């Protein structure tokens, strides 16, 4: 497929509108938007300001002590990585773990046993296999009762690592998954019951009706593959999702941005038309379509952007003479994805009165994904399953011995993956305003605590003690999810730049202002040292302990050379 042959008739036809959408916001509008976000979310003591050369930045509007919470940010959009959906069942809106400890373990063992890979079209169906009893809402179709029988189509075996696992009989796994078997002390770790997607897709589950409704309203009604979906074509939507799963799941996040913009635009347009009808004399100002679309697009317009295929740093394994071809491959990948998305949700009926086809421009798609490249945080939510097994391991004798008679086979069947957390990527409006420094005064992670690793049966206790890599779940601060982009293999997985760790911070005297119920996908920024009112809040986008050259090489991905005091001091 040649992108330039087809280039996007939309880009050509709506060049003016597309550039209006991509123009940097007026400084006054930008200030007003962020002041509003800060006051709506009741974030105390911070301000977003224009920062000359660096664009915008986040500033302290109060003094912060070391270890104090500077910001707790709600995501604008986020996704759980496809590969992680096998391991963790979380709310598709707030990313809390849902169901029960039994369901989490049983479902994972069941899918592990099937060798399920989400890179298989039919595997999208896999997530329908949740027993009916586990869900809060009623469903009369009974399709999920096929859990135990209907898996002929799950042939593609590529689940996560299977080393050192001790599989259990299918009936045992099933009884756990159906919650017929209750694990000791699991009530101490109760999780919100599952709520199904009202559209009937069986892929999205929620922790509450309010999360289900909010997601439906925000974007899911257009991206749902169920019967009540408002998408144009379910088959096309499945094709789009399959392409994203096969190449780069960042396209699913881009689709959420496009859907939410369309839905906001439609609401604005309907309200506008109603108000015009009500008023015989047009008191209501006559908004043109583009100004309503600009309003709907506003939250996205505020993010720092570049085209995806331009802003990705050239990977080491691509020769500079192949750079143009490499960038064209990324563009073609995005183009293919956008075509599939357009076939799925671009609605003919909307062309006449509710049109918003400008958002299907390739330029806009590229800039949305580029915005994710330059701003996104890893989404990490700690697993209650890990907490559960650690709790059992910490029980006094003889309770521990009794409990382990039941729990140990499950721990051994899960293997090293018992502690896998929810992983994804998300865009946060306020956190994304924070600039980088190699000597930062804040950090975007929660606690990188070394958790004790449980000594499972058959493991050499000495080896566990000596092998820190096994204990340290995430040794790298930047998590690059990359299927090595090469010219022969154009599959590129988005890397989310700044790691967000699941735990509370471990700096200073431990007097943190972070609520203990920190169990969802929010971003938390903690002061690493005292920050005075008026000072800029900075975080490090890379491991600041790396040598100068390595830091600069990693920061090239963000399109700048760091000039912080540490870098200036270390530069030859
Ligand atoms: C997450 S955004 C930070 C907010 C950004 N300044 C804005 O205007 O939205 C990351 C981008 O900010 C700029 N940036 C952040 N830290 C920087 C630094 N220390 N020096 C130069 N540019 C920086 C780079 O363009 C980078 O891609």
UniProtKB/TrEMBL annotation:
SUPFAM superfamilies: HIT/MYND zinc finger-like (SSF144232), SET domain (SSF82199). Pfam families: zf-MYND (PF01753). Residues 35-542 form the SET domain. The keyword S-adenosyl-L-methionine does not apply. One of its GO terms (molecular function) is zinc ion binding. Keywords: Metal-binding, Zinc, Zinc-finger. It comes from the Eukaryota. This is SET domain-containing protein.
